[in-house]
């Protein structure tokens, strides 16, 4: 089942307000959804975005695919950068301290810019929680857990084909 993070339209005529939802890709735009993550109101300047970042990170890490608009919202709020840094920590390419510094630099640059598309930005406390969650297992335990998972997959035995009875045996039975 392909899962998308997208917008569902709510609100009045000529005054759209959107819900940020997780839904099956085959479901209609305003139809059934799995979970609501927040709201998006483009009628204000800057646009108002209220997202539960913990849930958004959970769904993105599980493989949910954001639409173009949601990708722009994730990028502007800092979630895309956090996911990128978390992947670097997980691979061991960077440390948590370096990742925090890069996020703080991005945050300062974002605050210094005069143009804002969205009013919501991920908080540094949540970033710390995500980085700690990623770095829970030391590298040795991570490699052991992956090797256990790969060794636990056993090959299924191939079923033996039933052999046809020999012709000589069937003739011998008929003669008796």
Commentary on this structure:
Helix content is 47%, strand content 19%. With 176 residues, it is of the alpha+beta class. It has a 5-stranded mixed β-sheet. A hairpin with a 2-residue loop joins β1 and β2 (15-24). The longest helix is centred in the middle third of the chain and has 17 residues, at 96-112. The radius of gyration is 27 Å and the shape is flat. Mean pLDDT is 77; it is low at 137-152.
Q: How is this fold's topology laid out?
A:
Blueprint: E1 3-12, E2 15-24, E3 35-41, E4 48-51, H1 53-61, E5 65-66, H2 68-77, H3 79-91, H4 96-112, H5 124-134, H6 139-151, H7 167-175
Parallel strand pairs: 1-5
Antiparallel strand pairs: 1-2, 2-3, 3-4
The percent range for strand residues is: 15-25%
Strand order of the largest sheet: 4-3-2-1-5
Provide the succession of SSEs: EEEEHEHHHHHH
Number of helices in the DSSP assignment: 7
Largest sheet, in brief, is:
5 strands, mixed
Q: Which residues form runs of ≥5 with pLDDT under 50? A: 137-152
Rg, nearest Å: 27 Å
Structural class assignment? alpha+beta
Shape: flat
Beta-strand segment tally? 5
Helix content: 40-55%
End-to-end distance, in Å? 62 Å
The average pLDDT is 77
